[in-house]
Amino acid sequence: MIEALAMAAAVAATPPRIVIASDSTAANYEPASYPQMGWGMVLKCSLTPDVQVVNLARGGRSTKTFIEEGLWNQLLAQLQPGDTVLIQFGHNDADTKKIVRFTDPNGAYEVNLRRFVADVRAAKATPVLVTPIARWLWEDGQLKDAHAAYAATIHRVATDLKVPLVDLDGDMMKAMQARGPLASRGFYLLYAPYDGVARFPDGITDDTHVNERGARLGAALVATSLAKLKLPISRHVRPAPLDNQPKLGGPSCP
User: Fold this and answer.
1) 3-state DSSP of 170-234
2) What SS3 class is residue 61?
3) Is 155 domain-assigned?
4) In which element (H, E) is residue 128 found?
5) Mind listing the pLDDT tens digit for each residue in 189-246?
6) Domain for residue 245, yes or no?
7) Residue 161 lies in a domain
8) What is the rounded average pLDDT for all residues in the chain?
9) What is the domain-level CATH number for residue 21?
């Protein structure tokens, strides 16, 4: 009993931390990569100043390669009791071209998610499952769901294990549907040669990765859900507006 009280006091005295385990859609980028940004870069803009964001997202990783490359063990080694761990994978798990990344949504993907949850809980931290951010895929005026099977598995694991869930995929799709194809295009790396984007003088068609405005919207959506989950971290969340995302040329906060 005394031990448990001492641990609770130690956790309460530690500044709150959010740790992100994910892929390129949440990762940090150097200024030279602008306008590409990950939502993890600007999540801080929806948090009180005392919260530390430890962004361990890495581009090109699936649940499988995140484990195989030792990135998951590296995360566990620095995890602290009381941390909140946001776990978002799916884009690369669905990659059948680079087969080393691929996981079956009803097989290894589910097994890996369950392992992540168990490991985080064993470290006395709080896991939060996050569905992968939606892609900009429109057909005949309708937005297509690119992550249905993987999102369904995340929902199932969250329900089975009673894990808090952030449905970023569903929330981003709703945000895009409300804006329509043309306006929502402005959240992704979709530029024509004449758009004047220095990094992409010949233009780019990337319907997966978000730009600054897309990253800010994604982070605001994540924060909005976190605020509603009634977790210890929730009282430190002040969601940024979901409309009129600023364009500041980097990850600074308004």
Assistant:
1) HHHHHHHHHHHHHHHHCCEEEECHHHCCCCCCCCEEEEEEEEHHHHHHHHHHHHHHHHHCCCHHH
2) coil
3) yes
4) strand 126-130
5) 999 998 889 999 999 999 999 999 999 999 999 999 999 999 999 999 999 999 988 9
6) no
7) yes
8) 94
9) 3.40.50.1110
170-175-179-180 Cα dihedral, nearest 10 degrees = -10
Encoded tokens for 159:
């329900």
Q: What is the pLDDT of residue 9?
A: 47
Rounded Cα gap, residues 125 and 81, in angstroms: 5
- Summarize pLDDT for 100-125 with one digit per residue, the tens: 999 999 999 999 999 999 999 999 99
**What share of residues in the chain are helix, strand, coil (percent, to 5)?**
45, 15, 40
Q: Judge whether 163 and 179 are in contact, CB under 8 Å.
A: no
Range of the domain at 111: 12-228
SS3 labels along 149-177 = HHHHHHHHHHHHHCCCEECHHHHHHHHHH
Task: Report the predicted TM-score, pTM, of the whole model to 2 decimal places.
Answer: 0.93
Domain presence at residue 242: no
Tell me how many domains the chain contains: 1
Angle at CA of residue 60, ends 55 and 65, nearest 5°:
90
Report the C-alpha gap between 94 and 99 in whole angstroms: 9
In degrees to the nearest 10, what's the CA dihedral of 42, 211, 127, 151?
A: 160
Tokens standing for 182? 């043309």
